[in-house]
Amino acid sequence: MPVAIITGASKGLGRALARALAERGWDLVVDARSAGPLAEAARELRGAGARVMALPGDVADGAHRAALVAAAGELGGLDLLVNNASALGAEPLVRLAELPVAGLRRALEVNVVAPLGLIKEALPLLRNSSYFSYPPSYEGEAPYIGDAPFRGDGYPTEAYDPHPYSENSQNGDLSDSHPYVGLQGAVLTVSSDAAVEAYPTWGGYGASKAALEQLSAVLAVEEPGLRVWWVDPGDMRTELYAAAVPDDDDSGRPLPQAVVPALLRLLDGAAVSGRYTAAEPLPAPDGASSR
């Protein structure tokens, strides 16, 4: 069975994605800072059929990150790392003139340093994954028509490209081998349009997400065998947003479950590394969307 690590999985988008993967037969390593809600989430995931290792802790703690990766190894490896845990830096959000330096430091530690640390811990297992060598949609014969490579649903008609998944990584040093050979695991990082748009009071959080997106972009270039996706999930009704803007009426915002199908399409399509918005994650990376 494929294995995923999902941080911040006790609620919101992390829990919704974990449930969807559990229903698909994935085994899971999940974390959150609060042990009670995480244990509740783990019971739900086990009820959906998954083997689950639930480790409460702070992703900013290097020992905790190492424990998450070790737990994935115990389950058999690692095919997908989801960096979902986030910190706002101030609750509610404030203008930069009032943003505590300690709050910005916390946002950078959780939103940037911790994901990089977790990626570094996980790279040996991710490099050893063969999940995308035969994507979920693969059945029987290799999905080609003549010289055209498989790119998801349906059959393309364009001329053969020996590197169909590398255009976003700008790699010029890949061999002309079968495009599935050497494909490894995936890193899915939850970002925000605050990383690319200037919204009042979102400066500290947005700066941390912008740094995270740049790290993701560089990782995609440096690790061409991995799928690296940084995704703006769009507006959601979550506790994080309520803490950020408590006076805002979020009743019209969709629940996190509505975003999950877009994330699953990235997996199912073995999407090229890049920035995506949940509104339309395939076939090509997109620019900014909404928080």
Please outline the major beta sheet: 7 strands, parallel
Helix/strand/pairing class, anyone? alpha/beta
Helix content: 25-40%
CATH level 1 name: Alpha Beta
Shape: globular
**Alpha-carbon Rg, integer:** 19 Å
How many separate helices? 7
Q: From the 3D coordinates, which CATH architecture would you assign?
A: 3-Layer(aba) Sandwich
* Topology order in helix (H) and strand (E) letters: EHEHEHEHEHEHHE
N-to-C span: 33 Å
Return the average pLDDT rounded to an integer.
84
Can you count the beta strands? 7
Count structural domains: 1
Give me the CATH superfamily. NAD(P)-binding Rossmann-like Domain
- Relative strand content: 5-15%
Q: pLDDT under 50 segments (min length 5)? A: 135-181, 287-291
The fold-level CATH name is Rossmann fold
**Lateral arrangement of strands in the main beta sheet:** 3-2-1-4-5-6-7
Which SSEs are present, and which pair or pack?
Elements: E1 3-6, H1 12-23, E2 27-32, H2 35-47, E3 52-56, H3 62-75, E4 80-83, H4 101-127, E5 186-190, H5 203-222, E6 227-232, H6 239-244, H7 260-268, E7 274-277
Parallel strand pairs: 1-2, 1-4, 2-3, 4-5, 5-6, 6-7
Helix pairs in contact: 1-2, 3-4, 4-5
List keywords for this structure.
Rossmann fold, 7 helices, 7 strands
Describe this structure in words.
- Strands 3-2-1-4-5-6-7 form a seven-stranded parallel sheet, sandwiched between helices.
- The protein has a single domain (3-277), classed as Rossmann fold.
- It has helices at 12-23, 35-47, 62-75, 101-127, 203-222, 239-244, 260-268; strands at residues 3-6, 27-32, 52-56, 80-83, 186-190, 227-232, 274-277.
- The chain has seven helices and seven strands; from the N terminus they run βαβαβαβαβαβααβ.
- The relative contact order is 0.14.
- β2, α2 (35-47) and β3 form a beta-alpha-beta unit.
- It is of the alpha/beta class and 291 residues long.
- Helices cover 35% and strands 12% of the residues.
